[in-house]
Specification:
Layout (H helix, E strand, L loop, with lengths): L3 H5 L4 E5 L4 E8 L2 E6 L2 E7 L4 E5 L6 H11 L5 E5 L2 E6 L4 E4 L3 E6 L2 E4 L8 H21 L2 E4 L3 E9 L6 E10 L2 E10 H10 L6 H7 L1 E3 L1 H10 L9 H14 L1
Antiparallel strand pairs: 1-2, 2-3, 3-4, 4-5, 5-9, 6-7, 7-8, 9-10, 11-12, 12-13, 13-14, 14-15
Length: about 250
């Protein structure tokens, strides 16, 4: 789980400790707050200069961008990939720039450098807009996506934040036999659109397990309520498991 809140609150801490080093670490030295991921400095906030430096440190992994997006969400900035290319979104100018590995962000007024604008093909862009509009409408209508697997079910529940156009918070339930596991994480909107258009919740299973946070039973019940899930329409095995959890919790 990201330590973005601790980063912005200048709270030194670490999480995901192993024998050798912590996975996530917030370090405060004078006017600088640093976020380290597996020892790599992915973000540096200089309070005096009012700048934030973000860097993928050459890794360009899903975990790296997950942490960077968590930090940048405070500024309503997003990093996302489309067709193999990565971009960073400037909410003030409503424009997207090519992701160049490292960027310096002036906080007040907001300015991102370097800022190479994304080149777009107008015909392709129009087709994509139509596709995303159809997918968005489908998500609004259905609210959830349920797919039957060989040994159970996969259920996805996206929640959109209008301040973050390019990503959604997604809750995933994975039922296999008598076992149900829940994961929650932020997923690029394009991935969610694709899952709903293909009617295949399993397409996000691996991504959520790898980058999301696993929830215990109590957290699962809480998030189902937060996501306003219409539980009576869930598959029967999941309903039975949820009913048992509520009895045990009582």
């Amino acid at each position: 789980m990201s330590l973005d809140r601790d980063f912005w609150e200048s709270n030194p801490c670490c999480k995901g400790c192993t024998k050798w080093s912590p996975r996530d670490k917030v370090v405060v030295e004078g006017d600088e707050v640093r976020y380290l991921l597996w020892g790599s400095q992915v973000a540096t906030w200089n309070k005096t200069k009012e700048t934030l430096m973000v860097d993928d440190c050459g890794w360009k992994t899903k975990l790296t961008f997950n942490r960077l997006n968590a930090i940048l969400s405070e500024l309503r900035i997003s990093i996302y990939s489309i067709r193999g290319k990565t971009y960073i979104w400037n909410p003030k100018r409503q424009v997207e720039y090519l992701w160049e590995g490292t960027h310096t962000i002036k906080l007040n007024p907001l300015k991102i450098t370097p800022c190479t604008p994304r080149k777009t093909n107008k015909k392709v862009s129009a087709a994509l807009r139509n596709y995303y509009a159809m997918a968005s409408e489908r998500i609004e209508e259905r609210k959830q996506l349920v797919t039957k697997t060989l040994d159970g079910f996969v259920c996805l529940f996206p929640r959109r934040y209008y301040s973050r156009e390019f990503s959604m918070l997604v809750l995933g339930l994975y039922a296999s036999g008598d076992t149900i596991k829940a994961y929650m994480g932020r997923v690029a909107s394009s991935k969610v659109y694709s899952a709903f258009m293909r009617n295949d919740a399993t397409s996000l299973t691996g991504y959520l397990v790898q980058t999301g946070e696993e929830l215990n039973d109590r957290e699962m019940l809480s998030e189902l309520n937060y996501f306003r899930v219409d539980t009576p329409f869930l598959p029967q095995p999941i309903l039975q498991h949820l009913a048992l959890m509520k009895i045990l919790e009582a």
